[in-house]
Fold this sequence. Notes:
183 residues; alpha+beta; Hypothetical Protein Pfu-838710-001; eight-stranded antiparallel barrel; CYTH_domain; CYTH domain-containing protein; CYTH-like_dom_sf
Amino acid sequence: MKEPIERELKILIKEEDMNFIIKSYDLNKYKIQTNIYYDTLDRKVKQKNGAVRIRIVDDRYIFTLKIRKDAITHFEYEKEVNTQDLLNIKDEEILTWLKTHDIPFHGLIPIVSFTTKRYEKDLERATLCADITQYDHHVDYELEYEYKYEHNGISYFNQILKPIHLQYIKNCPSKIARAFDKS
């Protein structure tokens, strides 16, 4: 079985740079997604450099487990479910993913949620995502370059960033970390 790998580059940008990217790449369609993140009281998921979430997009609920492999790569296990209440999930595959990574299903509680307005553009080598995320106490603007396959993504991402006079240097933690950072 192929490993469930997600490789992406992310950078926080200014609102005016986001507006320029949205206009330049003709990103006129977006989806609103709400992310609910879970962890145990003693933060077992965080200790494993992971994240457990349910993402709500339209009327769909998507369970995701991410475990960091390196600075830009995660193991990502994802499956559509029929509920936004994590404890109502009975799917054996999902329960196995959690067990494999030693995450206690019944100890998981919601820890934070936020809403993102996501614009996407399908490129030849990657998907470009422009995210405007509303947290409880602030808004941020993140540009994401999500690999479709292995290549020199930093070089291609830098071509996208060049018109706004930026170069890729990781400048942000995950959205979940940012949600806690400014709260």
